[in-house]
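Predict the 3D structure for this chain.
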Amino acid sequence: MRGDQGPASVSSRLKHFEVTSTETMSDVLEKLNRLLDQTLASNAFYRSKLSGLKESMPLTSLDAFRQGVPCTTKGEWIADQQAHPPYGTNLTFPMASYVRCHQTSGTTGAPMRWLDTAESWHAMLEAWDCVYAAAGASTEDRAFFAFSFGPFLGFWTAFESAQKRGMFCLSGGGMTTETRIKALVDHQCSILCCTPTYALRLAQVAGEQGLHGKDFALKAIIVAGEPGGSLPAVRSRLQEFWPQARVWDHHGMTEVGPVSYECPEHPCSLNVIQDAFYCEVLEPASDDAVAPGQQGELILTTLSRIGSPLIRYRTGDLARAPEPGLCRCGSKDPRLEGGILGRCDDMVVVRGVNIYPSAIDQIVRSQATIAEYQVEVFTKDHLTELKVIIEPIASLQPDDVPHLASELARDFQVSLALRVPVEVAQPGTLPRFEMKAKRWNRR
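Done. Predicted structure below.
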């Protein structure tokens, strides 16, 4: 599998996704009714939340589902777990049915636990298999997982799905960055799975060690955990070092599981796995649907994770509403053009300009001589202000540093119509990240 594969190979490896739109909607409605039947019968959380729905069952259309079923918010299930520790009441089956426990990363609050039955775990491995299928992975591939294994869901589903597919799997848990680079080379791994930030870090350290892309056997870099995987500047930086490898984006959440895979014919876009999810895109502040191609909040209903479901869940992720019809790659799955654009709660308004972290990331990553950066958001004279702190690569000549800072400030001005002060930190002083990067500091 190479990044320059033609349409024939793409269609071949995604052939099993093909289906007519009529069959798809009928199948989705059937799965929604089955999900609602089971949760209304035995799931205490949703039996209370959807108490008035039972007399309307079975639902006869997707419109009836959208109009008759309220959205679920993150605050609701957090409150439920806090009121009924340790797992809450969003459990459809007896406790003895659950075989796995994972938890959220806790980046925006206390970590929350999520349970899975053997059946729902198997369904999530099948969903991750769609990611590998899109990337053209086979039993001949050797996959390296560059992260520490803990209670976070994504690493385990990626690893076990690759095992199930018959791939050689090598865990990078407990390794330093230097050790992971050596393992990638020694084992001639062809697939790398990690966050976009950590893939950039691996490329940077490998370059400092005198290694080049040709020293690696990588042909696919599958990234997740941050919106950066669908940002052209991030992908460009990675493919400068590994020109033979294509970057494949993917996203998921602990509370819903693996959600999407990158469309083989539409780089920087994500296809939602319709066998596992019913997706909508709504206005962030209301239940109104946005028009196709317009930006809104991604709403997901888990069709196969029945043991601990989420129904019309407001993910907080920003995405563009899918255009109707089948994708050119032959997939039935709704395509989110541009992937995940950011988080609803991440936007800051600076002097009347709406700023998302992904916009800053795209501009900063366009400068190849910036190793890492941080953003400070603060209030001055009752106004929100923004400052970016950059760390140049160690090989940049000191005389070139002021030019780099002024050039980045000019890029901010041109792209955002906003003056953003840029400060310079000494090489090696800013934090490095293996999991989700925490670059934005609010004070």
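Residues 348 and 355 are 5 Å apart (CA to CA).
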